[in-house]
Design goal:
This is Molybdopterin-dependent oxidoreductase. By secondary structure, the protein is an alpha+beta fold. The protein has helices spanning 3-33, 41-51, 54-64, 67-95, 102-119, 122-145, 167-190, 213-223, 271-276, 309-315, 338-342; strands at 256-261, 267-270, 280-287, 298-307, 323-328, 333-337, 345-350, 353-354, 364-366, 379-385, 407-408, 412-415, 421-428, 434-440, 448-449, 451-452, 463-469, 476-484, 506-510. A hairpin with a 5-residue loop joins strand 12 and strand 13. Helix 5 packs antiparallel against helix 6 (122-145). The radius of gyration is 28 Å and the shape is globular.
Amino acid sequence: MNEYARRTRAALPAVGVALAAGVAGVAGSYAVAGSTTGYVVAPVESALSQAMPGAVVTFAITTLGSLGQQVSLLTATLLVVGVVAALALGGLLVAGRTPPLVGALAAGVVVGAGAVLVTGAPLASLGAAVPVAVVLGAVDLYARYGRGGQQRPTGRTAGTSGVDPDRRGALAALAAAFAFGALGVTLGSRFGGVDGAGGGAAGPSEPAGSADTETLLAQASERSLDVEGLEPLVSDSFYNVDINAVDPTIDADTWTLTFTGNVAEEVSYDYDDLRAMDSSPEFVTLRCVGEGLNGKKMDNALWETVPVAPLLDEVGVGDENCCVMARAEDGFYEEFPLSALRNARIAYAMNSESLPRSHGAPARLLVPGHWGEINVKWLTELEILEEEATGYWEERGWHGTGPVNTVAKLHVTNHDDDGSIEVAGHAYAGTRGISKVEVSTDGGGSWSEARLSEELPGEDVWRQWAYRYDPPDGDHEVVVRAYDGEGTMQPEKREQSFPSGPSGWVTKTVSP
């Protein structure tokens, strides 16, 4: 074996120990911070997401879907593990030239300080530093005293890696990393609300709706079609799309919404101000501009809302303005016409409960009839503009600020015992409403009208549709199309989601 090969083989255990320390450090941060911005991976993932070229983002949305964000999070995690491992390897080098545990403590301090700079969360950063120091300290002591109780040499004669862990020491470090990882997942998932940056509960825990909320929710349940597998009119699980993999945690006691830009007076409202305003429960459906034509990123909820128009009058927004830039705590920003903002609402509750963190707690924007991207979550600022500007998604080539496209989705196919088939789904056209859904079971040759769920109160609400038929022999093509409240049929031509949202008739091959 030549000298290079010998040195490389001798260094492998040290690299293994460093990687184990990296994993342990990231796991320790998660154990303390959970899925909050104090988690050391969170700001790195956010920076990666915002630095991605528009073409990469578009590919992730249109091809990978929700998986794209998980890939981004995994990439950021591996990057952080690599950086912490490099610092740990430096600690091993220092350990070979210093008294016991000095290198381990030095590496822990450097990792902790770096984590504080990245996250601004001291407690979560301590969670990253301690496991690194523990793993390196244990290996340091083993390398010095682990064989027959005799202290091994240190200094430049100790080897190429300062302290020379053997394979047994490297395996012990990996076992420690596994233990820290398991502990991190367990504690992080259970106690993820701790955020060293000052986060806490995102809002009050008591029910947040008005007196009419329960009546409306009961009404939605009664009006939902009794079709097996069809999601009810109030969604069981509401979709989530965010620019970051880790949502911000905002304390309702410190939250404010500020009107800035071309206003007569810059005014801020806090959470108590918002809750004191006249509010009402309102059904509003949201649809993601980046979803597939027959995708499942379209849902409906009952929100407790405050109208924005009176606030615009209070702060003095004149007719000379054209647009608004809505900004969020997570760094997201989106521009859209001021006319849409005048019809917008601020929501602080969802389905009779305080707004969940994943849906923008303590308050979010709802803009009826528009794609989900301008319904900004974790809303903190509304900047009134005299001239058009470019929003986050528009900078990346999307054009989803306008009204939603009409769509009828086909999500359910039920085969009944009598041989008949029932197909069903949801139809949506924003504030235009839905007047009719038609179904073809012969690929578009003939059409029949589907039954619709009774309309829910509100100007921006989806409807369910269902159609039962006796199938022909063999496979056949089912096609579905919707008409909005003005009688306009949705376009037949299929368009991809990029750049302005999907459109076209939904088709599905059905077997009898």
